Amino acid sequence: MTSGVKNRTRQAIIDAAIDLLAGNPACSLGEIAAAAQVGRTTLHRYFGERADLLSAVASEGGERLGRAATLADLDRGTGAEALLRLCREYFDLGSLLSLMFSGQGGECWESQDEQYLIGVIERGHADGSIDPALPSDWVLTLLWSQLYAAWEYRAQRQEASRHHVLDLLTRTLSNALRPPQS
């Protein structure tokens, strides 16, 4: 059985890796160890090679994405409401998603996850909350691009509160997804 201290140390290393690799995919293991406030030897005790650490990052990423989807309760409400709840949950995963999109996050995003989101979008098409003229893959691309824009906006404007940026994000997506008024 692994002790609480070992679990916390391992988690600190994974968290540091997610944060640093998102900003600099070429960062060294030494930089990750320093950010985790452990020695390089300690990092290697937990992760013998960079590939081992990246595998742990991918696993952690999958867990975080799954928790976000669970918290968003994607089966409740209209398709658009579900996507907006998911955006709110994903917003706090900025470093992880940046890492994933850069290709450094491994296989934390499964094809079934994408298929599930497409199902939510199709539900929105059917219930009238998402413009049916917008293809599902377009809506997914819009979701990811707007999340990225929100993270960048907040990073560039230190005075912008999380609440304000989330409001901008959800307002933009709501207006983009809404079917035209007849």
TrEMBL record:
Residues 7-65 form the HTH tetR-type domain. It comes from the Bacteria. SUPFAM superfamilies: Homeodomain-like (SSF46689), Tetracyclin repressor-like, C-terminal domain (SSF48498). Residues 28-47 bind DNA. Keywords: DNA-binding, Transcription, Transcription regulation. InterPro entries: Homeodomain-like_sf, HTH-type_TetR-like_transc_reg, HTH_TetR, Tet_transcr_reg_TetR-rel_C_sf. The keyword Flavoprotein does not apply. This is TetR/AcrR family transcriptional regulator. Signal peptide: none annotated. Pfam families: TetR_N. The keyword RNA-binding does not apply.
